Amino acid sequence: AWLASWRRAEAVARAALDERLDAIEVPSEPRIARDVAAHAPDGATLVVASSMPIRDLDRVAPARGRLRVLANRGASGIDGFVSTVLGVALNEPGPVVALAGDLSLLHDANGFLLRPDAEGVDAVFVVVDNDGGGIFHFLPQAGFPASFERVFGTPHGREVADLARLHHLDYREITRPDEVAEAVTEAVDAGGVWLLHVRTDRHGNVELQRELTGAVHRALDESGLS
How many CA within 13 A on the CB side of residue 209? Predict the structure, then answer.
C-alpha cells in the first residue's frame, strides 16, 4: 500500500509538471532537461553538468530505462565538464548527449582542443544559456541587486556560436521548446560534435520553479495524497 501510494503521487506530480511545462511558449530550463532525458536515444549516455542542469534533471525527468546518467562533482562542480563528455564519447559505444549550462561549457571550453587524431568523436551538447550563474538567484544574496550580478550572476556576454566556429563544431540555435527533442535526434544521427544552443532567462526561471512547486502541491492536495 505504501509503494502504491507513492506511485500514485508520482503520477499526479508528473501530470502537473508536464501540464505546466508544455504550456510555456518559450524554452525553459526544466523543460529542456525533461525533453533531453526523455528523448535521448535508447542506449545513450547522458552527461549532466552541475548547478541547475542536474537539479532540473532530478526534479522533472521522467523515469525510463536504457539511459545511463553521469555527472561530475568536484571543488566547484563545473571543472572539466567538456573534457568529461568527450572522454565518455571516446569510450562509450552508444550515443553521448550532454546537458550543459553556459558557464560549465565556457569553464572548460579548451576541452574542445582534442588531440588531432581523435577522429570519429560523436557528442551532442545541449547548452542552456542564461548568460551567467542561474542557481544563485535562489539564494538570499539575490536580494542585493547592486552587487549580485558582478559577484554571483557573472554574466559573460559570450556567443556560443562563436565558440562553435573557433573549434569547428556543428552548431544549431533552438528558439522553440518543441524543437529540443527533434534537434537532439538529428544531431545524434548526423554524428560529430554538436552545440545545440538554447537561450533562457535566469530571472524567469526562479518564478517558474516556484510555479512548478505550487502546481505539484495543489495537485497532490486535490488528489488527497499530500
Answer: 18
User: In sequence order, what DSSP letters do the residues of 127-179 get, joined into one string?
Assistant: EEE-SS-GGGGGSGGGG-HHHHIIIII------HHHHHHHTT-EEEEE-SGGG
CA distance 5 to 16: 17
Mean pLDDT of all residues in the chain? 93
Rounded CA separation 94/47 (Å): 13
Q: Which helix (H) or strand (E) holds 98?
A: strand 96-101
Buried b (16+ CB within 10 A) or exposed e, 148-168: beeebbeeeeeebeebbeebe
pLDDT tens per residue across span 159-184: 999 999 999 999 999 999 999 999 99
Q: How far is CA 58 from CA 30, 33, 75, 188, in A?
A: 10, 9, 21, 23
